[in-house]
Amino acid sequence: MYTGYPPFKGQSEVLLFESICRKKPLIRKTFSSNFKNIILKLLQKNPIKRLGSFEIKQHPWFNEINFDSIYKQQIPSPFYENVLIKSLSNYRQEAVKRNEKPLLIADQDDYIEDFKDF
């Protein structure tokens, strides 16, 4: 998504899957070292060595991202206008016209005890 091109190529679905399983991802020389590092760790073939969700959020590539603010929807989407114009269905466009509020996330979870072992 960063470049608009996939990290693996194949002339058919079978060749693409083979490329994913056996080849290294296509990494451009112009990528920053942090970006190269996170892509290689995310596309690690060995799942034990692959980054988990906590490690992803702690990676230097995301240093400037405040995940808590994103979760609480306190940061406006940089893609909102583009998405609004190009991909919203008529139903959603009508909801926007009616100024419907976005999904609100509670500050506290009233059901945390019910799902502690989930």
From TrEMBL:
Keyword Kinase (UniProt): yes
Keywords: ATP-binding, Kinase, Nucleotide-binding, Serine/threonine-protein kinase, Transferase
GO MF, one example: protein serine/threonine kinase activity
Transmembrane segments: none
Superkingdom in the source lineage: Eukaryota
Protein kinase domain segment(s): 1-62
Database matches in InterPro entries: Kinase-like_dom_sf, Prot_kinase_dom
The name this protein goes by in its record: Protein kinase domain-containing protein
Origin species: Adineta steineri
